[in-house]
Amino acid sequence: MIRLEILLDQIFTRHRWTAHLFFWILIIAVYSVFFGRQNNNYWQTSFFVGLLIPIVISTTYFLNYYLVPRYLLKERYLTFIVYFIYTLIFSVFLEVMTMVLTFVLLAEWQIRNMSPAAIDFFFLITSLLMVVFLGVAIKLLLYWRKSKEDYQKLMREKLEAELKFLKIQLNPHFLFNTLNNLYYLTNEKSDKAPQAIMQLSEMLDYVMQSGKSVFVPLERELKQVENYIALEMLRYENRVQIQFEKKLNLDKWTIAPMMIITLIENAFKHGVMNAAGQSWINISITDNTANLMIAIRNSRKHSAPGNGIGLKNLRNQLDLVYGENYKLSIDDHNLHEFSVTLTLMNQA
Length: 348
Hints:
Blueprint: H1 2-14, H2 16-36, H3 42-72, H4 77-105, H5 121-187, H6 193-210, E1 216-217, H7 218-236, E2 240-247, E3 254-255, H8 259-271, E4 279-287, E5 291-299, H9 309-322, E6 326-331, E7 337-345
Parallel strand pairs: 2-4
Antiparallel strand pairs: 1-3, 4-5, 5-7, 6-7
Helix pairs in contact: 1-2, 1-5, 2-3, 3-4, 3-5, 4-5, 5-6, 5-7, 5-9, 6-7, 7-8
């Protein structure tokens, strides 16, 4: 069915006039063969078909380019049915007049001189209906396909707009925290400031480049995760212990940018920043055949929730990018520990 839709779309959209011409040549050939059977009079057959085809063509195009878009596609079904019946009655009347004209001019008022097919009233009606319905069916199929493509395009544009909006919110949040780190180092006149500036430069470049893509290689994301952790460690030094475990096939996965960084940023913000003493963060990234698992646990010294604007935006972004192909679990019940587990399902 899908291949038929694509074929019709290519024929009737890209080569519209050629397709229409070929369609009507085929219909004329069918009419000529039918009305010419048992009648070797080529002139009479051509005359009859030549009078009949304009009626069929006019009826088909009137339906496709006036009644269908004006009434049927606007869901004015009753009006469409009424006008459709009127149109068919008028078209049948014209076909009957064609039979009479042929009977008078060519058969010289003698039934025996007419082709049996030319007086087959049932075929005249059914052939008209068949051609008209075929034309309308093709028109509706192409319209349905175009509507589907337009809807998908609209959804893609909506998704891109929403993602850009979320990234506009997310990236300044990340940048603000990182600049605070850099300010701290320069204020302390640390000789580690140049290294921090280089790492920040790499991260800003990543943020700008990744903003153009829905997905990035997981390896690139993890490289910036390491840069981010290094920047935070320059600030907190021995106040925090980081355990970072990676057991996965890096080449297998892509990920929406800033996902892991946002989770780790949240851990530092709510687990380390406000802590008076020693803190810890455990990061585990593993995979199996079907899933990528990102688990982050951090200590905390108070009962304040750790799901701020960062995690809220992250969840919104996950909804947009992954739909139902992810699971975000937040454990906020332990007063001394906060954990987040993000499971991304393989969509390949």
